[in-house]
Write a structure and sequence with these properties.
18 strands; 8-stranded mixed beta sheet
Length: 494
């Protein structure tokens, strides 16, 4: 199967969507599929690049408009996107993130390539493809319905999701949100959660302080949506507790607020502002902590808490969005997004560690280093069998309430538990099932696509019709038969 992953968000940018696209693509490559990635150029990073495992990445020469996204034009990039999809002989176009304009435009082109482009039987019938090209979209976020930004995004998403074959969400609450705001049928949306490489995010309790100091780690973009205002209200509560230190990883517009709070409370030596960190180095910060705190106000699926649990940290998180679905109750303390509730749960977590914490555990390996390369490779070979098609259903928040007397799990047990719940092999296998399903479906006809666009957004119909006729002209000017297929480069096994 030949798959094209598309998103404005990819390396060298760092984030959850970038990690998802990269790891899923690597696992699909290891399973024998051909994967190419489309994204826009990042500074000097342009043209065609090859990454680990032979992953081919097109850094397209398209200017960025705002927040790492291209300007959504719907038609200006049609010739370039059509050329890439045809030359790579793509079977499935998989777009990622509702914020990605490039993903939406490529899905439109993919929908048009998956049918016979024509203008009436009496004038022109142009077979654009010999095989069916289908489209899949993964939504990584939750949106509201009230503000202008959400309304515009929801309108665009509603149009695009009614032109594609299938949608994927990373949590059940995310599915419900997508079904409501995009008005798409339930059976056309699947739930496939994210995963974490537990061979990379391994515990190392030796990195924790040897004295009575408790390190609380926060790893997040420092923006309002991540609840940084709540964190700014929690930190001063520990002013008179000298044994509690904070390690804050990430950057954003709310960093100034946290630095101001640190200065006002004279906690410069106890609140460490690490700043932005490469994803490969996040584990080195996590293993220094005992407790991980997440204060998000909305979240479809929080990768940070899974990575923290994999490193053996006790997780305290706000109970919002899809977070209650992510971790079992013995790995997480769920609280309401309120300062008092977060502060109280952190005290419970601290009390647990002081009663039965693991300060000097030795890793279960002969050389005392679980993170060694050999151990990591061994963990990858011991993956469990594929999980069921759907993720586990969420438990009510009340089921997650815990007391100070509940034991703290051994960090290595946490890692093993996370490994049984989430790994990229399962995610890839379940995603391939979606691909197989949509490839058996028929492509939409021209009239069906026009009706879908007109019904859900008549203002967008003009752009769609222009894109449709542009595809017809391109097929006459540069037909498929005159386009040389891209050569596949076989990378030697690692």
């Amino acid at each position: 199967m030949r798959i094209c992953m598309v998103s404005d968000f990819f390396y060298p940018s760092i984030g959850g969507v970038e990690e998802h696209v990269y790891n899923l693509s690597q696992m699909l490559l290891s399973q024998g599929h051909k994967v190419v990635v489309l994204t826009h150029a990042y500074g000097d990073c342009s043209g065609i690049r090859y990454l680990t495992g032979g992953m081919k990445v097109y850094y397209l020469p398209i200017k960025v408009c705002y927040n790492q996204c291209i300007l959504p034009t719907a038609i200006c990039n049609v010739p370039l996107l059509r050329a890439v999809l045809i030359r790579e002989r793509v079977d499935v176009v998989h777009g990622h993130s509702a914020f990605s304009a490039l993903a939406h435009e490529t899905l439109i082109v993919g929908s048009l390539l998956g049918l016979k482009v024509g203008i009436d039987n009496d004038f022109l019938e142009i077979p654009e493809r010999n095989t069916i090209l289908q489209t899949v979209f993964t939504d990584h976020s939750l949106f509201g319905f009230a503000d202008l930004s959400a309304a515009l995004t929801n309108n665009l998403l509603e149009i695009n999701l009614n032109m594609i074959n299938h949608a994927i969400c990373v949590s059940h609450i995310g599915k419900e949100n997508t079904v409501l705001r995009a008005k798409v049928a339930h059976h056309r949306v699947s739930v496939i959660p994210n995963a974490v490489d537990t061979a990379l995010f391994t515990p190392d309790p030796r990195q924790r302080p040897s004295n009575d100091i408790i390190n609380i780690v926060v790893a997040s973009r420092l923006v309002y949506r991540k609840g940084i205002d709540l964190l700014a209200g929690v930190i001063p509560r520990f002013k008179n507790n000298p044994n509690v230190h904070f390690i804050i990883v990430g950057d954003g517009p709310k960093r100034d607020l946290l630095e101001e709070i640190r200065e006002k409370t004279n906690m410069q030596d106890r609140v460490e502002m690490v700043g932005a960190v490469e994803h490969a180095k996040v584990r080195d910060v996590l293993v220094r902590g005992h407790i991980f705190v997440n204060t998000s106000l909305t979240e479809a699926y929080c990768m940070a808490i899974v990575e923290a649990a994999s490193c053996g940290l006790q997780v305290v998180s706000t109970s919002v969005g899809g977070i209650p679905e992510v971790l079992p109750k013995n790995l997480i303390l769920l609280v309401e997004p309120e300062i008092d509730a977060i502060y109280s749960s952190i005290l419970v977590a601290i009390e647990r560690h002081r009663k039965g914490g693991f300060k000097t555990l030795n890793p279960p390996s002969s050389n005392g280093n679980l993170h060694a390369e050999g151990i990591g490779e061994g963990k990858r070979r011991r993956r469990r069998k594929p999980a069921p098609e759907e993720a586990p259903t969420s438990e009510p928040a009340s089921a997650h309430k815990s007391s100070r007397d509940d034991p703290v799990l051994c960090p290595y047990k946490c890692n093993e538990l996370v490994e049984t719940l989430y790994n990229w092999e399962d995610v890839a296998l379940r995603t391939v099932k979606v691909y197989d399903r949509v490839l058996k479906e028929r492509s939409f006809s021209t009239s069906e696509l026009v009706y879908a666009v007109w019904q859900h957004g008549s203002w967008f119909l003009v752009f769609f019709v222009v894109a449709h006729f542009l595809m017809c002209l391109l097929n006459l000017w540069r037909p498929r038969s005159r386009m040389e297929p891209a050569q596949d480069i076989q990378c030697p096994p690692s």
